[in-house]
Write a structure and sequence with these properties.
By secondary structure, the protein is an alpha/beta fold. Helices cover about 30% and strands about 20% of the residues. Helix 4 runs antiparallel to helix 5 and helix 7 packs parallel to helix 9.
Length: about 425
């Protein structure tokens, strides 16, 4: 476990340890597996190598060099985050801490929010937390961020992400948020956070809990939509009364809480878990939003669920909930060309295929247009798939002369 934690980030707090983990069920308890590194999360030879260094009392420099070699093989920044998503101001140097992948939405990584109350073992942003400046993505340039949003009227939503922005105190987070309230074309401010699951005290008993909620009220009163993007990976995270009180207090500010999580092997890979989670969220006034597919980074091979199985889990959970929970979308892959949703498995012209579409895309023309991929029971990611039905390329790829990219135009009704 220590060898794995030398490569991947490990952090847990007293609330998770004392309130969420059933220690009688460990190591099979889902919350235990959610936060504590497992010995087989990484290739056996890599773990053995670092374990041997630890046993031999190797110096920190040697351990870091070995860990960095393993990290380099784990695709630390998937989906073009460092090269395709980073904008420039006036075609000059890239703007630090900002990603602008889709026209309408900007992601901002506040410097003080690039850690979490506890780390998820599956986290696709693990590279933010390993202490390597070359892998970290962050900025404290508030004016630069505000100016960029102001100068791009197509941007209607800013998402504060990390790490976890709610690790920041109210005095810090307000300095980032308040200047955005003056931008007329901005419609929504989103906060991506795991704090409701890992430290609900942030909204109930922490010294600045009331000030934070007043900041949320100020956002809503300004005419902006405050979307609180809450990460819940398992229904057990909703069990404590303190979480339910935190949810109630956040909702009372006028913020909308939308819930999302990836589908993770050994933690939430069964329909009953998702059914319970979505129904619990609806009961407490939250809006189920996304089931994600584990991204192609870090220990993906350990946590990933094949796409065919992921679709079955989603469909079986989806059919058991009411329409109020069917706001959820998935299974969704946040890949380089965009957010791709698996709509189903069917047979067309004698060929078994996946039916997919783009929820969001770098190229807006692709959004909402169905396409097909060959059925593959082992495929776990978009790039594991092959075009189907005679297509030579997928929609986001260059189509050779005389080729087909498999796009389908639906009739207008």
């Amino acid at each position: 476990m220590q060898a794995v934690a030398t490569v991947l980030p490990f952090r847990v707090n007293s609330y998770v340890v004392d309130e969420l983990i059933d220690w009688d069920a460990a190591p099979d308890d889902p919350i235990y597996r959610l936060v504590f590194p497992q010995a087989d999360m990484l290739p056996k030879e890599d773990v053995s190598r670092i374990a041997d260094l630890l046993s031999a009392g190797a110096k920190r420099k040697e351990l870091n060099e070995a860990a960095n070699e393993v990290r380099a093989q784990l695709n630390p920044h998937p989906a073009g985050q460092m090269d395709l998503n980073v904008p420039t101001m006036g075609n000059e140097e890239p703007i630090p801490g900002i990603q602008h992948k889709y026209n309408e939405t900007v992601l901002f990584f506040p410097k003080q929010g690039q850690t979490c109350h506890a780390y998820c073992t599956y986290c696709f942003r693990w590279a933010q937390f390993v202490g390597d400046a070359d892998l970290k993505f962050a900025s404290s340039e508030i004016d630069q961020m505000v100016e960029y949003v102001r100068s791009h009227p197509e941007i209607t939503s800013v998402l504060f992400t990390g790490g976890d922005p709610m690790i920041m105190g109210e005095g810090v987070i307000s300095r980032y948020i308040e200047p955005l309230l003056e931008i007329e074309h901005l419609e929504a401010i989103r906060i991506g956070t795991k704090a409701l699951g890992y430290w609900p005290q942030r909204f109930v008993t922490d010294p600045d809990a009331d000030d934070t909620l007043r900041l949320f009220e100020k956002v809503v009163e300004s005419g902006k939509n405050l979307a609180f993007m809450a990460h819940f990976s398992h229904p057990n995270e909703m069990a404590p009364d303190l979480v339910q009180e935190a949810v109630r207090r956040v909702r009372n500010t006028g913020a909308v809480i939308r819930t999302q999580a990836p589908l993770i092997r050994t933690i939430n890979d069964d329909p009953g878990t998702w059914e319970t989670m979505w129904r619990t969220h609806v009961r407490h006034g939250m809006v189920p939003y996304y089931m994600f597919v584990e991204r192609d980074t870090g220990p993906q091979d350990y946590f990933a669920v094949p796409l065919a199985e992921a679709y079955d889990i989603f469909r079986n959970a989806y059919q058991r909930v009411s329409g109020l929970a069917r706001t959820v979308r998935g299974p969704s892959m946040s890949a380089t060309p965009g957010k791709v949703c698996i709509d189903g498995v069917t047979e067309v012209a004698g060929e078994k295929v996946f039916v997919l579409h783009f929820i969001q895309a770098r190229d807006p023309e692709l959004v909402g247009r169905p396409f097909f991929a060959e059925y593959d029971e082992n495929a776990a990611w978009l790039f594991d798939l092959k075009p189907a039905l005679g297509a030579t390329h997928f929609p986001w790829e260059t189509v050779p002369e005389g080729g087909s990219n498999g796009l389908v135009d639906l009739p207008r009704l």
